[in-house]
Design brief:
This protein is α+β, with helices and mostly antiparallel strands. It has one domain. The protein contains seven helices and twelve strands. The strands form three sheets. Strands 2, 3, 4, 5, 7, 8 and 9 form a seven-stranded mixed sheet that branches. A three-stranded antiparallel sheet has the order 1-12-6. β10 and β11 form a beta hairpin. It is globular and about 50 Å long.
Length: about 260
């Protein structure tokens, strides 16, 4: 296999984004750049120089449509919604001529990717019980799908196995359906806030006013036309503070430890 360096990986991601954008526009599917990709579009008109992935977000109904309808011979979708062997909560669209190997993982699950985060209605009233149920299922999914690493000690491997034992009767696919049922409970109601999971294993969900998502506008990202919510400034300030300021030098590093290869 031939290794793909970061700059070339970024080119592959941009091409993937271009395919996704074209499909979404043709099929009236709403999407927006999010997280660091959103900052990159505003501050750099492309990737943050040290970033190593692309993140998108979609309202749940459009997210489901995209997963079920996107069909391109050059790309695959790695998603717990359809893949019973998927061990991540997130959905990733990846170039099927590539493979990613994360540090300390000897097995590849997907290739050079673009992540897609669905967002859902959050209840207007008390959310404590809803959050508890949501986080309960998320943690069970993590325990069920946690992987053994080449650097794990024997004791750590035993600990991971012990976490899995009570969950042996349940598939990760079944647990993910419980997560999805909980998250979408209020999607048939008009609520004031959306919630979205940032993707970190033990992080909480972020909440944003639905007004920020009412309209999308076009922006340039590494030379291609793409989409971003019109309320991006408030979205980013709530998440990152003054996002136009560069972080300290010590924090300017890729957040994923992986090697990419052509197959």
């Amino acid at each position: 296999m031939k290794e793909i360096l970061l700059d070339e990986s970024k080119q592959i991601m941009v091409k993937t984004l271009e395919k996704i954008d074209s499909f979404c526009r043709k099929n009236n599917i709403v999407y927006s750049l999010c997280w660091g990709t959103m900052i990159g579009a505003i501050r750099h008109q492309g990737f943050i120089p040290w970033d190593d992935d692309i993140d998108l977000m979609m309202p749940r109904n459009d997210y489901n449509r995209f997963i079920n309808e996107f069909n391109d011979p050059d790309y695959n979708i790695y998603t717990p919604q359809k893949d019973r062997n998927c061990i991540q909560v997130l959905t990733k669209v990846y170039n099927n001529n590539t493979r990613i190997f994360f540090n300390n993982h000897h097995k590849s699950l997907f290739g050079v990717w673009v992540s897609i985060f669905p967002y859902d209605n959050a209840p207007d009233g008390s959310i404590k019980l809803w959050e508890f149920k949501r986080n309960f299922w998320m943690n069970l999914y993590h325990f069920k799908t946690v992987r053994y690493l080449t650097t794990d000690s024997l004791l750590r491997r035993i600990g991971k196995f012990a976490l899995k034992i009570p969950l042996l009767p349940f598939s990760s696919f079944w647990i993910n359906k419980r997560i999805e049922k909980c998250l979408t409970k209020f999607n048939n109601q008009t609520t004031k806030m959306y919630c979205i999971w940032p993707g970190d294993t033990y992080s909480g969900f972020d909440y944003y006013s639905v007004d920020l998502f009412e309209e999308c506008i076009d922006v340039t990202f590494d030379g291609i036309n793409t989409r971003i919510i019109k309320g991006y400034d408030i979205f980013l300030r709530l998440k990152y503070g003054d996002y136009m300021q560069f972080p300290p030098e010590s924090e300017r590093a890729p957040k994923h430890d992986y090697r990419a290869y052509y197959i």
